[in-house]
């Protein structure tokens, strides 16, 4: 969700709801991953290929072993017969701050921050994401920042951030749209200043390191500051750089020697999720990313109006995360003529790679990614394109395509079982598997059972052994 | 389920063909619409159906009817047609701009599409070329008569006429000003001469709430309704063709709602200018009690206060009807906050069963209160919203009380979210109401877009309602509750030709209205 203020009042209302996640999670999450799980007789939407009828997905030690019509089921596999059901990959929420305790730090440039420290597993948000079949959430600081910190990809299960995350974060949140209290001059000025200061910082460090080296070598050669800065660059060690500059350096792809036992290494580069609330921000985002060497690792997080910059977006070649609100509404200030633009169609027609986000308000349907995809189909986007936008595209965009986004051998055994076609609004999510573990079962989902019951003691809400 | 009905339909269709051939020889003004499937809204499905429309009314409907020669034909191919949707408790959306500019250049392009003939400055008739003729009498209400612009023709446009509503306000204002009277139209809204905009789009509470008094059934919400509001266009694009415009729930006994169509010629829009009186139980009138202003200014005191509790709300309701009875009997009225006598005329017509009464209730105990009060005064009310209706189904059933239920939500938003009355919503309520045999209809209230009426039906289907039942709940059922049976809500002979052509299965997540007809004219096309 591209939420400038870090959440609408509606979202905040939702967040106030008391999370009673822990007890429920304790019952479901820590079930031991079965050695082998076979999901059989189902219709499988692998996303990476055409649908397969009456197919089996065999998961072994959390990874998909085999998919297809003629998969031999090992005798010791735990079998789920899913006749009439549809299996699709777990969906991915590509950019969301919810799940963190607050959306943004009050300082504008906080590249040293890591979402890991703010992930709150007890958020109702995670429980809800799981219920909606979203099995990976790219948890990033919100866009009310200049450089907001590193995000993490998390599973919506686990009792600690360490259990939830998929390894290290790979993207920094950057915003070219003005944060609260700033305007675009200030915002872009600060961004440029930050990268210029990074150069100065490296120069200062280089000069200092060069002088230290001279001292070590007991030499006294005055080459002048400019030459010292040049000669000292290769002398900078990892431990010389503070955390904020380290992440900025990783963003720009700067190479720094880590003089470890295994010889010189460079930092892993970071990518950027750049917030562009308005169409005017797209050009600035591309320019900043290009000037500072991270355009190839940039994802544009767009507001609804950004479809107007479709040519610039296409030309940049960068993938985009579309906002939860898929319709751009405009009333002509002169004529009063009201127009609505369904923005996804524009991106699909232009051939830009995009991922969809769930709606951020409490609207019942929009929170479902499958519904967002169904809206796209309603407005003329091809069905396979819409389905990709909530799975494989998102996985590629967040850098997890080797594990997530499609049902293929070698990927995580993370799948969602629907009662019918995922884009049919009457289909419900019956089960969710994360890495082969059955983590969600609608029949034992107390909240859903309560919402669709008519008494205070919902039927079927008691935990039953599976 | 449709088998036996199909046979009946075929039979009636044969009869209809005959009727159509005899009664409607070809002449201009006849439209025939063909579609693969027509869902009539009255529980029937017609395959390869044809609807013949003459002068805005359906004159024949059935499978494979012969198209009268010379009729304009709209072939919808393999699409599905349903009746235009009916929202029995529509709250016009505050977020949507309520009016266009008064003298904007492009308004000149838009306005002529909305009425065929308009009265311009100096009373000159201007032919706009639109197809529908303007109606001059709206159930005896002549305030919508298209008035000449009261202002000199200093503007660059001659189309003040089609803005009949605005012109009517302006004329009234001019008359009041001439007579030196204070004007109730909200004179501050009227732009002084030479100013470039006319903007009745002041805050929502100005338009919908009335903070002056708790008992105002003698007022009409229609006076606040801008028929040019863009919200109507939005409703139209969502397939909603007839709405009961509900007043705000800020007063215990609020103004009278209006029934209007969402599109078509302006003169044809108002179906009923003065419809049901809306009352509210529970937190809505009471939570605003503290901030309500007294007629003469200043804060409410313990002597002349607005209700701040449910007890107070109930008291105001009871006292109003009690006073109405005493007034009718010629007895003196006592106590503070006596409503004006015009209010009692309306309340007595409610007591006589001539004017319908609606009561907004969310919590189950408010439903009990509402029905207790109704019983006390011998009123048959229509309940609205009914968040906790699932808890009172036996009560609704036994008392034969109908309910306009909705919207559906897990977490409410908008002003409803702040009432504290919505914590115990249930998604299965439509199914429960349906299964229990309660007379009910579904409403989206202020919901638009993904929370609009067709999406409410979509959600109701997800949580157990049959698609056919959901269609009824947004077409013929609300029409019946609004006493418009036979006119809207079902596609049958004699009904207004209000219908929706869907891109796919109605209410499916992947389909939407493609074309909407009102009174036989295309009012919206994607």
How would you describe the overall organization of this protein?
The complex is a heterodimer of chains A (466) and B (526). Chain A contains 14 helices and 19 strands. The two termini of chain A are 35 Å apart. In chain B, helix 7 crosses helix 8, helix 7 packs parallel to helix 9 and helix 12 runs antiparallel to helix 13. Chain B is globular and about 70 Å long. In chain B, the strands form 4 sheets. In chain B, strands 1, 2, 3, 4, 5, 18, 19 and 20 form an 8-stranded mixed sheet that branches. In chain B, strands 10-13-14-15-16-17 form a 6-stranded mixed sheet. In chain B, strands 6-9-11-12 form a 4-stranded mixed sheet. In chain B, strand 19 and strand 20 form a beta hairpin. With 526 residues, chain B is of the alpha/beta class. The chains are: A alpha/beta (466), B alpha/beta (526).
Strand residue content of chain A: 15-25%
CATH class of the largest domain in chain B: Alpha Beta
Q: How much of the residues of chain B is beta strand, in percent? A: 15-25%
Instruction: Give the overall shape of chain A, derived from the CA principal axes.
Output: globular
CATH topology of the domain at 33-90 and 405-466 in chain A: Urease, subunit C, domain 1
Low-confidence stretches of chain B: 1-10, 13-28, 94-178, 180-208
Number of strands of chain A: 19
Main beta-sheet annotation of chain A: 8 strands, mixed
Quick overview of this protein structure:
Chain A is α/β, with parallel strands linked by helices. Chain A contains 14 helices and 19 strands.
Helix-strand layout with pairing:
The complex is a heterodimer of chains A (466) and B (526).
Chain A: H1 9-16, H2 21-28, E1 36-44, E2 52-60, E3 63-68, E4 78-81, E5 86-89, E6 91-96, H3 124-131, E7 134-139, E8 147-150, E9 152-154, H4 161-164, E10 171-175, H5 184-216, H6 225-232, H7 243-251, E11 271-276, H8 280-291, E12 298-302, H9 310-316, E13 320-321, E14 327-331, E15 338-342, H10 343-350, E16 354-355, H11 369-378, H12 383-388, H13 392-397, E17 415-418, E18 429-434, E19 437-441, H14 446-451
Parallel strand pairs in A: 1-4, 1-5, 6-7, 10-11, 11-12, 12-13, 13-16
Antiparallel strand pairs in A: 1-2, 2-3, 5-17, 7-9, 8-10, 14-15, 17-18, 18-19
Chain B: H1 3-23, E1 30-39, E2 45-54, E3 57-63, E4 72-75, E5 80-83, E6 85-90, H2 107-110, E7 117-119, E8 125-127, H3 164-179, H4 204-208, H5 230-237, E9 240-245, E10 253-256, E11 258-261, E12 270-272, E13 277-280, H6 283-287, H7 310-328, H8 341-351, E14 357-361, H9 364-377, E15 382-385, H10 393-398, E16 403-405, H11 429-436, E17 440-442, H12 453-462, H13 467-473, H14 476-481, E18 499-502, E19 513-518, E20 521-525
Parallel strand pairs in B: 1-4, 1-5, 6-9, 13-14, 14-15, 15-16, 16-17
Antiparallel strand pairs in B: 1-2, 2-3, 5-18, 7-8, 9-11, 10-13, 11-12, 18-19, 19-20
Helix pairs in contact in B: 7-8, 7-9, 12-13
């Amino acid at each position: 969700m591209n939420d400038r203020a870090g959440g609408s009042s509606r979202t905040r209302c939702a967040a106030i709801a008391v999370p009673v996640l822990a007890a429920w999670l304790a019952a479901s999450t820590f079930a031991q991953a079965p050695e082998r799980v076979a999901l059989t007789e189902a219709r499988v939407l692998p996303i990476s290929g055409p649908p397969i009828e009456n197919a089996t997905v065999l998961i072994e030690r959390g990874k998909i072993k085999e998919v297809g019509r003629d998969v031999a089921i090992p005798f010791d596999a735990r079998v789920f017969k899913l006749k009439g059901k549809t299996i699709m990959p777990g969906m991915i929420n590509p950019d969301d701050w919810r799940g963190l305790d607050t959306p943004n730090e009050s300082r504008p440039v906080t590249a040293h921050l890591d979402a890991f420290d703010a992930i709150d597993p007890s958020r109702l948000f995670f429980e809800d994401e799981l219920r909606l079949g979203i099995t990976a959430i790219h948890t990033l600081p919100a866009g009310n920042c200049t450089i907001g910190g590193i995000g993490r990809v998390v599973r919506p299960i686990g009792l600690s951030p360490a259990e939830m995350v998929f390894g290290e974060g790979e993207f920094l949140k950057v915003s070219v749209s003005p944060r609260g209290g700033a305007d675009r001059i200030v915002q872009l000025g600060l961004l440029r200043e930050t990268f210029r200061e990074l150069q100065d910082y490296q120069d200062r460090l280089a000069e200092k390191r060069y002088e230290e080296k001279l001292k070590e070598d007991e030499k006294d050669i005055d080459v002048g500051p400019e030459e010292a800065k040049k000669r000292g660059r290769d002398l900078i060690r990892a431990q010389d750089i503070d955390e904020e500059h380290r992440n900025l350096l990783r963003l720009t792809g700067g190479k720094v020697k880590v003089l470890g036992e295994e010889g010189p290494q460079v930092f892993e580069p970071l990518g950027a999720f750049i917030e562009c609330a308005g169409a005017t921000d797209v050009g600035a985002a591309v320019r900043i990313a290009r000037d500072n060497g991270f355009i190839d690792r940039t994802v544009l997080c767009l507001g609804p109006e950004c479809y107007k910059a479709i040519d610039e977006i296409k030309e940049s070649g960068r993938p985009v995360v579309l906002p939860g609100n898929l319709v751009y509404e405009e009333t002509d200030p002169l004529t009063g003529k009201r127009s609505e633009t369904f923005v996804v169609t524009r991106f699909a027609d232009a051939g830009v790679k995009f991922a969809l986000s769930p709606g951020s308000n409490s609207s019942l349907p929009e929170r479902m990614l499958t519904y967002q995809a169904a809206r796209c189909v309603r407005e003329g986007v091809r069905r396979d394109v819409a389905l990709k936008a909530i799975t494989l595209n998102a996985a590629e965009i967040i850098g997890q395509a080797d594990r997530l986004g499609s049902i293929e051998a070698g990927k995580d055994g993370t799948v969602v079982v629907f009662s019918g076609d995922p884009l049919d609004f009457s289909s419900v999510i019956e089960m969710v598997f994360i890495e082969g573990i059955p983590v969600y079962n609608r029949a034992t989902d107390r909240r859903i059972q309560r919402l669709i019951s008519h008494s205070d003691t919902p039927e079927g809400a008691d935990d039953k052994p599976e | 389920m449709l088998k036996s009905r199909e046979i009946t339909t075929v039979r009636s269709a044969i009869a209809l063909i005959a009727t159509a051939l005899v009664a409607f020889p070809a002449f201009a003004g006849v439209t025939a619409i063909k579609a693969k499937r027509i869902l009539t809204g009255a529980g029937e499905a017609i395959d390869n159906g044809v609807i013949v429309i003459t002068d805005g009314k359906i004159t024949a409907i059935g499978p494979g009817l012969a198209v009268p020669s010379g009729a304009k034909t709209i072939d919808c191919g393999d699409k599905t047609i349903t009746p235009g949707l009916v929202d029995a408790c529509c709250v016009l959306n505050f977020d949507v701009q309520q009016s266009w500019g008064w003298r904007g250049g492009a308004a000149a392009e838009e306005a002529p599409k909305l009425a065929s003939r308009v009265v311009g400055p100096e009373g000159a008739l201007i032919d706009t070329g639109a197809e529908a003729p303007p109606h001059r009498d709206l159930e005896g209400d002549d305030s919508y008569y298209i008035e000449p612009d009261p202002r000199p023709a200093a503007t660059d446009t001659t189309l003040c006429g089609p803005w009949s509503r605005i012109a009517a306000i302006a004329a009234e204002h001019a008359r009041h000003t001439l007579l030196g009277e204070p004007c109730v139209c909200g004179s501050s809204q009227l732009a002084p001469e030479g100013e470039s905009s006319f903007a009745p789009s002041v805050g929502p509470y100005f338009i919908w709430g009335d903070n002056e008094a708790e008992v105002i059934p003698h007022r009409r919400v229609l006076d606040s309704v801008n028929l040019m509001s863009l919200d109507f266009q939005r409703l139209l694009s969502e397939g909603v063709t007839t709405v009961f415009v509900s007043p705000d729930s800020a007063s215990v006994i609020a103004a009278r709602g209006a029934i209007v169509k969402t599109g078509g010629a302006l003169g044809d829009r108002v179906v009923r200018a003065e419809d049901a009186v809306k009352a509210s139980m529970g937190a809505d009138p009471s939570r605003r009690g503290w901030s309500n202003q007294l007629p003469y200014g200043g804060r409410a005191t313990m002597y002349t206060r607005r209700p701040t509790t449910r007890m107070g709300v109930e008291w105001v309701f009871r006292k109003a009807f009690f006073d109405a009875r005493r007034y009718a009997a010629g007895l003196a009225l006592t106590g503070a906050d006596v409503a004006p006598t015009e209010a009692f005329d309306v309340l007595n017509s409610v007591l006589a069963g001539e004017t319908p009464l609606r009561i907004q209730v969310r919590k189950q105990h408010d439903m009990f209160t509402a029905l207790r009060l109704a019983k006390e005064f011998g009123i048959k009310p229509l309940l609205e919203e009914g968040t906790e209706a699932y808890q009172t189904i036996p009560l609704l059933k036994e008392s034969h009380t109908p309910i306009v239920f909705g919207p559906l939500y897990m977490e409410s938003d908008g002003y409803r979210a702040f009432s504290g009355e919505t914590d115990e919503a249930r998604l299965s309520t439509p199914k429960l109401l349906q299964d229990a045999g309660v007379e009910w209809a579904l409403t989206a209230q202020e919901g638009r877009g993904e929370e609009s009426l067709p999406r409410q039906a979509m959600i109701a289907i997800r949580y157990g309602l049959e698609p056919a039942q959901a269609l009824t709940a947004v077409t013929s059922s609300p029409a019946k509750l609004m006493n418009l049976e036979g006119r809207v809500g079902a596609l049958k002979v004699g009904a207004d030709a209000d219908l929706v052509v869907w891109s796919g299965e109605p209410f499916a997540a992947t389909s939407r209205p493609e074309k909407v007809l009102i009174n036989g004219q295309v009012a919206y096309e994607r």
